[in-house]
Specification:
The chain has seven helices and 14 strands. By secondary structure, the chain is an alpha/beta fold. It has one domain (about 5-205): 4-Layer Sandwich (Metallo-beta-lactamase, Chain A). A six-stranded mixed sheet has the order 1-2-3-4-5-6, covered by helices on one side. A six-stranded mixed sheet has the order 7-8-9-10-13-14. Strands 11-12 form a two-stranded antiparallel sheet. The termini are far apart.
Length: about 210
């Protein structure tokens, strides 16, 4: 059974997730740990629980979701997985940092490309990749049918949706991703968001004012 640990990192209050099962193999999703304290917090949790990190996954590569990419890659000797269209954001990281007044961001790269329908495996568990562009050109989410949850990045939020005013964003594409992809998941599916508190598909169908 997959356990989900979450951490709120950086001035952007970004949610970083560590998923692991009974084998203690783990994946880190969207490491937003920016400073030494935050990176140590993530490292301490992984070491305390004797986890073996085997993959780094990015829902997308906006700077607040990749602050800790190189730290995770170098600390646990793993590759970063993301959609190839996210190279757009990788190339935009320095300009994005300047836009938001961020003094420094470690250059990073995608090591292995993923696309819709791929299965990300760790331990005895797996996550299905679903392509959900709009907030970002190559945005994906990670869905587990058996436990009814989705690590959703910045597609859906509780009673909100991802912004589309950043370079590469497309509002209609995001709405299509939500209605044609996310809303086909069972209503009871728990949505772990890139910022803020979790929600469910059923709740957003009923209460989200943007949809």
């Amino acid at each position: 059974m997959i356990q989900i640990a979450s951490f709120e990192f950086s001035p952007f209050s970004e949610n970083t997730y560590v998923l692991y099962d009974e084998t203690l193999e783990a994946v880190v999703i969207d490491p937003g740990c920016y400073d030494h304290y935050e990176r140590q917090q993530l490292k301490d949790f992984i070491e305390k629980n004797k986890l073996k990190v085997v993959k780094l996954l990015n829902t997308h590569c906006h700077l607040d979701h990749v602050f800790g990419n190189e730290f995770v890659k170098k600390t646990w000797h793993v590759q970063a997985y993301a959609h190839d269209l996210e190279n757009f954001n990788i190339g935009f990281l320095e300009a994005s940092a300047r836009m938001f007044g961020i003094g420094h961001i470690d250059p990073t790269r995608i090591d292995s490309f993923i696309e819709e329908g791929d299965l990300i495996e760790f331990g005895k568990s797996s996550l299905e990749v679903i392509f959900t562009p709009g907030h970002s050109p190559g945005h994906v989410v990670f869905y587990n049918k058996e436990q009814n949850f989705c690590i959703n990045g910045d597609v859906l939020f509780k009673m909100s949706i991802g912004r589309t005013d950043l370079p590469g964003g497309n509002h209609q594409q995001l709405i299509n991703s939500i209605k044609q992809k996310m809303f086909t998941l069972p209503d009871e599916t728990i949505i772990y968001t890139g910022h803020g508190n979790p929600t469910t598909i059923g709740f957003e169908k009923t209460h989200n004012p943007f949809l």
